[in-house]
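## retry 2 of 3
previous attempt timed out at serialization; input unchanged, resubmitting
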Amino acid sequence: MRRVFCIALGTVLISLALPAEVSLPGLFGDHMVVQREIPVHVWGTASAGEAVNVEFRGNTASTTANEDGRWEVYLEPGPAGGPFSATIRGTNTVRLDDVMVGEVWVASGQSNMVWPVSRSNDAESEIQAASHPGIRYFKVELTTAEEPLADVKGEWRMVSPSTAGELSAVAYFFARHLHGRLGVPFGIIQSAWGGTPVEAWTSSRTLSEEPVLASLAAEFALEGERARPEYTATLVTWERRAAAAKAAGEELPRRPRAPRALQAHHRPSSLFNAMIAPLLPYGIRGAIWYQGENNASRGQGRLYRAMFRALIEDWRREWGLGTLPFLYVQLANYGRVPEQATWAELREAQAMALGLARTGMAVTIDIGNPTDIHPRNKQDVGRRLALAARAVAYGETGLTHSGPAFRQATSAGGAIRLWFDHADPGLEARGGPLEGFEIAGADGRFVPANARISGKTVLVSNPDVKEPVQVRYAWAADPKGNLFNSAGLPASPFRTME
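## retry succeeded, writing output
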């Protein structure tokens, strides 16, 4: 927590409640981690015209609060290290202790990013072993806003057996891998909310500038207007029944859930405004993202191509830190969905985002749960994201950080030969002959295919398809598929053409 000291002026103590107080955003506090090797941005509020002095790690910067009472300074960048203290002085003094300098990542998305260590595989042993004072995390309090906010609520906590259970499991296992590999302090800012759509995390400016997405806010508002009368009537009926049950001493009926269009955390830009915009001045290395189930369940697999690309480019523009590394999880296998193709199309949209520079994708098609949208194996998810980070964000060479990714198809007589990126040092079929491949001719009718590995390629054929035109692999919500590379990473689902 921040400690605020009053400065004596004669016999009078300046009250902590006076507007002259220097104050800092919620992101600043004891145990925080600041990003190494970039200027350290410190900002806050004070009285208009108030002189503010900031000291950190032997560096000092001074400024004056503007007419709105806002101030900011940048301190010299430096290497990883700590713990340090930081002192911010105006008419009062704020001191931050146990400040570390290292790597900072934002972890965002929906419920599979929120999913805690306490509900993941081997939870008890993982929590007991979670003694990592060099890993700290800040959980952004859930809230929504119609306009961008300036601050968030939360506090920095060190990872220990008493705290690890509440932390995002994906973020924790990601951080643990990189903390051990890099040997520097590691900070996670968890800003995620279960069941939310990608458009809620995207700024209104970007949504309005993208033609395909420009109407989303208006459509959401119209949907809400249509849903409100019926929901209001449902609430009136529920309130009457609840009152009768209470009077009779009976169990109260469950309050009816509001439709999606009346839930603020589904509104386009509402979570960007409240839970991302206040983070933008804070220096970070990159972002990890696990989301897509919400949009897939609404049949938006194809639309997600524009949605997801817009989000990535939006965050990069808004953070202003160049081509910010953006790593994400491709949807795992899951069988309880009505439209199989929608989930396959959304995975395809996720894979297409790899066309953007400094992106990486963790494929999880092999570690999902056909009957549970929240698979418990978050250890492998975090590790695969960390492998992507080592290559994309930290420039590690000679590392196979991804499973086989379809590159191109060529004709091979009555067969089709498939070529892959990330096929080194080789391809392999896990647990038996290759499966999950389908082939089609000009009529577009897919049938199961024979597939075999040929060097670093795969040959696909079916004797009944004399002139094959296209192939697809693992093209279902819960597909079969066992193509891996020799590094033990699974191939991403794909189709050779639409």
